[in-house]
Backbone:
């Protein structure tokens, strides 16, 4: 009897690697959009789970930003039930308009819904269908923003309860697997709308593959893997440095003695701990804070998101709200 298509075998192997070590009876949820990537992920999880005694369910998040999205989510859920997943839940979320943009708002709402579903069902893991192409697009977007190693490191294969088994699998391989397995999926029209930055990155990546030769996508994803090791080491050093520094005010000498690659991460941690919103905190803010150490000329406080002020007075630095007006 012939085995599965090579792409299906590769996807199943990737999922099997994630399920290793799970305890019998554990519930693993698949974050499913109805697209080809999450559909083959769900199918592979349903195929592999019995060998480990693991239960597999799914959460379909309806973002409600397109006409007919409720029907699309319901159809996706029906297909997942037919694959043998249980429980399968459709969760509707509200995506705020404006602010940081539709993509960022939808992502934030989606992860909040997935976290809530995992808690509600007592899930051990949540599987995400991001592919090698998604990873490459993430790195390309980071390059256009002039981001540091953390952003260029792309998406981690494992973080908290989340796992991304398909980061070594291409989008084309997912579609090939779906076709050979006779799986139906839904193509989101938003994935073709150039108003979205990620769609433009996808098209730019295709142009680079054509103009520079095949392998650009894989090379960008490989770069993310290499940078992630460096970024995680620097993050660990920063975490240790913050613990050593203790509560503020902080001595200028102690901060300035840290290597810059560690110090910028320390600044970010100190600002977040003081209440700066993570989504609004940018490199320009940590760089301005660092100039209080490296380019001190008696300048006034640095304004950072969250209504905070970073102020240097002689040999001490403080972070807090602005001083009350007398």
Residues:
């Amino acid at each position: 009897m012939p085995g599965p298509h090579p792409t299906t075998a590769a996807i199943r192997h990737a999922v099997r690697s994630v399920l290793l070590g799970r305890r019998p009876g554990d519930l693993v949820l698949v974050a499913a959009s109805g697209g080809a990537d999450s559909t083959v992920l769900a199918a592979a999880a349903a195929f592999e789970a019995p060998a480990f005694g693991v239960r597999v369910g799914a959460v379909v998040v309806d973002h409600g930003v397109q006409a007919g999205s409720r029907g699309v989510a319901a159809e996706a859920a029906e297909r997942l039930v037919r694959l043998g997943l249980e429980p399968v839940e459709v969760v509707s979320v509200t995506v705020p308009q404006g602010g940081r943009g539709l993509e960022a708002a939808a992502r934030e709402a989606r992860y909040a819904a997935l976290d809530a579903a995992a808690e509600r069902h007592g899930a051990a893991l949540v599987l995400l269908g991001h592919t090698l192409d998604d990873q490459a697009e993430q790195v390309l977007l980071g390059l256009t923003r002039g981001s540091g190693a953390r952003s260029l490191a792309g998406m981690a294969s494992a973080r908290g309860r989340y796992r991304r088994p398909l980061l070594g699998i291409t989008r084309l391989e997912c579609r090939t697997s779906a076709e050979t397995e006779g799986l139906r999926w839904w193509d989101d029209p938003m994935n073709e709308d150039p108003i979205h930055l990620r769609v433009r990155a996808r098209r730019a990546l295709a142009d680079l593959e054509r103009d520079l030769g095949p392998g650009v996508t894989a090379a960008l994803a490989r770069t993310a893997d290499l940078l992630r090791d460096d970024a995680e080491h620097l993050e660990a050093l920063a975490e240790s440095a913050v613990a050593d520094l203790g509560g503020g005010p902080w001595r200028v000498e102690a901060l300035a003695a840290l290597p810059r690659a560690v110090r910028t991460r320390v600044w970010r941690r100190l600002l977040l701990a003081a209440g700066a919103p993570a989504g609004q905190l940018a490199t320009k803010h940590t760089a301005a804070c660092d100039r209080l150490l490296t380019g001190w000329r008696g300048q006034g406080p640095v304004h950072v998101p969250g209504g905070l002020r970073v102020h240097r007075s002689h040999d001490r630095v403080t972070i807090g709200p602005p001083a009350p007006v007398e």
Summary: The beta strands are 27-32, 55-62, 88-92, 125-127, 158-159, 162-163, 250-251, 302-304, 308-313, 316-320. The first strand starts at residue 27 and ends at 32. The chain has two domains: 6-216, 246-320. The chain has a mean pLDDT of 90.
